[in-house]
Automatic annotation (TrEMBL):
The lineage of its organism: Bacteria, Bacillati, Actinomycetota, Actinomycetes, Pseudonocardiales. This is Acyl-CoA synthetase. InterPro entries: AMP-bd_C, AMP-bd_C_sf, AMP-binding_CS, AMP-dep_synth/lig_dom, ANL_N_sf. Belongs to the ATP-dependent AMP-binding enzyme family. Residues 392-466 form the AMP-binding enzyme C-terminal domain. One of its GO terms (biological process) is fatty acid metabolic process. PANTHER family: ACYL-COA SYNTHETASE, ACYL-COA SYNTHETASE FAMILY MEMBER 3. One of its GO terms (molecular function) is medium-chain fatty acid-CoA ligase activity.
């Protein structure tokens, strides 16, 4: 029989497993309430209205105990996207926090409120490792969202690989404030601590005060996205309480998008901590990470995790071995998804002889550390015969004292093929376009300077803090 996904859940321990504000559940309480709910679930897919609450955590654990796929739904989802997901995956019911107001699109689906008391833990047989655990929908930037079928095998191997990379143990207490409808917040942030037998404290909403409080009172790790660490970088130098709390953390991890090198530097100066970055996708879960016991290289996402193979591939399909040469990341390993639900064509197109095509462009240094330069579709700019990654230009722009935020895209140019466009949120008086171009040319190379500068009050971002570059182009 396969090993259980949550080996510590059935121990009946009084140790705290989940804390969301005033709601806490011990391992014994979680086993009982999730076990009771699991017995009442249909043997079919179930949707979960994934609010950032302990209820969502209980619902997903219950589905995993029952061996039925859970489909997390973003509470901010739009009508059209919700209708597409419901038609595509046809869940048998929706699990929701009591009192949560659901959109009209869910009116025809049977609802079951998620309990926090009662139940009976019982015993559970672990399903086959290839059994679907979660169906997580992509953001749908290039068409209708695709349902990524993640088997139990992928969850277990990714979380165990992070145990190896981060020295993650049952003694760790994780603090985060991430949404619970995607890989980072739900799988890493909730299921990760539960698999290790540790604890998680969810803030509900991110605040630097909340982070400081938890890290000063027993939390050992923090997971966040660059927008969160950007706020920390801006405050830590002038907030001794925050700096001291961060200084005492065992591990600070950033993901879901690249953390600007400038923010890395500011956090290290204020706290002595070096933030660890890792790289993953919905389809692959985690691929690489800077190791807790390895060299920290700001701006890189580390080396391949245990069990993950990674290669860079050029435009003609050739494997690229040269140091610092740009290629598309392709990966294979037990961390990969099974299929796109109801999309055999898309599933086939996503693979190259067993290797998953990520669409992310990167380089590798002599030590094997991966540095992502951007998405193939939006962040690789071909200008004047050069392949230029938007990320390094963004990092250079952020070193300018009057640049608060920066994004870089390419747009058609009759002479260059594509010209580099900088989208700037200024800090104080907006710097002149020529000044910014000279700044980049001095730090990088003349051909990487922006030809056009556009100023904004804010960059368009999704729920994970990623800049939506297609919105910039529109």
């Amino acid at each position: 029989m396969p090993d259980p996904l949550f080996p510590k859940l059935g121990d009946g321990a009084a140790k705290e497993a989940l804390r969301f504000g005033e709601h806490t559940l011990t391992y014994a309480e979680l086993a009982a309430v999730a076990g009771g709910l699991a017995r009442d679930l249909p043997r079919d897919r179930v949707a979960v209205w994934a609010t950032p609450t302990v209820h969502t955590s209980v619902a997903v654990v219950a589905a995993l105990l029952a061996g039925v796929p859970a489909v997390p739904l973003n509470p901010k989802i739009g009508e059209r996207e919700l209708a597409h997901i419901l038609t595509d995956c046809a869940p048998a019911l929706v699990l929701a926090e009591p009192g949560a107001e659901l959109p009209a699109g869910l009116a025809e689906l049977p609802r079951r409120d998620i309990p926090l008391t009662g139940g009976d833990a019982g015993t559970w047989d672990e399903p086959d490792p290839e059994t679907p655990a979660l169906i997580v929908y992509t953001s749908g930037t290039t068409g209708p969202p695709k349902g990524v079928v993640l088997p139990r095998r992928a969850l277990a191997t990714t979380l165990d690989a992070l145990e190896d990379a981060w020295g993650w143990t049952g003694g760790d207490v994780l603090v985060h404030a991430l949404p619970l409808f995607h890989v980072h917040g739900l799988i890493l942030g909730i299921l990760g601590p539960l698999r290790r037998g540790g604890s998680v404290r969810h803030l509900g909403r991110f605040s630097t005060d909340g982070v400081a409080h938890e890290l000063a009172n027993g939390a050992t790790m923090m997971f966040g996205v660059p927008t969160m660490y950007h706020r920390i970088a801006g405050e830590a130098g002038e907030n001794p309480k925050l700096a001291e709390a961060l200084r005492g953390a065992r591990l600070l991890v950033s993901g879901s998008a690249a953390l600007p090198v400038h923010d890395h530097q500011r956090i290290t100066e204020a706290t002595g901590q070096q933030v660890v970055e890792r790289y993953g996708m919905t389809e692959t879960l985690m691929n690489t990470s800077v190791r807790a016991d390895g060299e920290r290289k700001p701006g890189t996402v580390g080396v391949p995790l245990l069990g993950v193979e990674l290669r860079l591939v050029g435009d003609a399909g050739e494997v690229i071995d040269d140091v610092d040469a740009v290629g598309e990341i392709q990966v294979r390993g037990p961390n990969l998804f099974t299929e796109y639900l109801n999309r055999p064509d898309a599933t086939t197109a996503a693979f190259d002889g067993g290797w998953f095509r990520t669409g992310d462009m990167a380089t590798r240094d002599a030590d094997g550390y991966v540095r992502i330069v951007g998405r193939k579709a939006t962040d690789l700019i071909k200008s004047g015969g050069y392949k230029i990654g938007a990320g390094e230009i963004e990092n250079a722009l952020l070193e300018h004292p009057h640049v608060a935020e920066a994004a870089v895209t390419g747009e058609p140019d009759d002479d260059l093929g594509e010209r580099i466009v900088a989208w700037i949120v200024p800090s104080g008086e907006p710097p002149a376009a020529e000044e910014l171009a000279d700044h980049v040319a001095k730090l990088l190379a003349p051909h990487k300077r922006p030809r056009v500068v556009r100023y904004l009050d804010a960059l368009p971002r999704n729920d994970m803090g990623k800049v939506m570059k297609r919105a910039l182009g529109a």
